[in-house]
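fyi for ur records
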Amino acid sequence: MFAAGDRVVVAVSGGADSVALLDFLVNLREMGLSLVIAHLNHQLRGEESDGDEAFVVRLAADYGLSVETLRVDVREFATRQRLSLEEAGRVARYDFFDEVAARHDARCIALAHHADDQAETVMLRLLRGAGGSGLAAMLPRSADGRYVRPFLRVTRREIEAYLAARNLSFRTDSSNTDTSFLRNRIRHELLPFLAGYNGNIAARLVATAESLAADEELLEQVVAAAFDRLGSFERTGTRLLVKVLTTESRGLRYRLYRHALRLVKGDLARIGSLHLQSIDRLVHDAGSGASLSLPGGCRVTKSYGHLVFTAGGSGEHPMDWEVPVEGPGRYPLPGGSVLVVEPADSPAGLRMTSPTVTFLDGEQAPFPWLVRNFRAGDRFVPLGMTGHKKVKNLLIDCKVPRDRRWRIPLVFSSSHLVWVAGVRAAAEARLTAPTADVLKVEILGLDPLKGL
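which gave:
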């Protein structure tokens, strides 16, 4: 999982598992790892959540490590994004961990999931109707190497013994006993019940996940080879040849649909077997021009001998959206991107910018800001120009597909458009030599010039 001298972000909640992981990694002296602690305060348990954050900050000081913390109102985020509380927390955490890793140029992010977590995940997915890939559950190392789980074969009992032997203190999350959450019911009710039939049930579930993961590795190679034969990935979407698809086995077809969706969507969240069956009916029974909307803003269209998968065209997204920005911070936006605003020093060049990062003069762009998507008639002065340009024309010039333009955030200070995020900086509020109040503004999870 690690090479000597790696910089590693360690996700630390303050609970037993993450405290044990942190201590273990600190004491891998021979590896010489450079560790950075990341802690997200979900703001779900009031003073208890704040206490967890304070505990992690003290823990970092005790170890002499850097720590990055962030507070996110996960309940409000879940409501705004129409996610369950558990899913919203997961999205917020992983976005934050990715951001910290990028900021510190870390090679990977270490998570404290252990064998009992794995058993719960397998059972959770079984209850929800997952196939082989879902039941493979969590991997010790993600496919891209970004996330690692050193404790995935370690049991909760072994972690508790380690903490006791090392005399380490930790925080206890009161919500872990709340059986209104399905995972907690599995942990406290279902698995103990199944242990009456097999006392080693958790270990058996973990072994099943490992076996299925090995199968998935082989099957993914088969799918990749099949996609090379009958598929293509372009900026406008993913295409599969219908004529060839109909000659393949149902199992391979379903896996190709999943592969295509992952390419355009980035993940398979909320995509289930019923959706794959609907796509298959589209292939076999529908005429050219027929289409299907899927969760997460995806559309599948049968068009002139191709099955075309695109993102952002399902009509599920709000046609008009607005997000207020009161000051520096991190703001999740509709469509999955995140706006990050933070004070900064002046960059080496006053016009130093990129499609996804810009620097603004805080005095010329006072808060509050309003971030919204494109409206007909929007105009601005692009950086380096003196005349106005229609935002619509800019998006056309940059070849941003029509069905993806709704995701492009426009950042306004008062009535002034100061940035077309991910596309072009504005002359308004640009840095000048006397600028003292410098703001770095970055958009994460959005690159329309590279297919979003």
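The first strand starts at residue 7 and ends at 11. thats all i got for now
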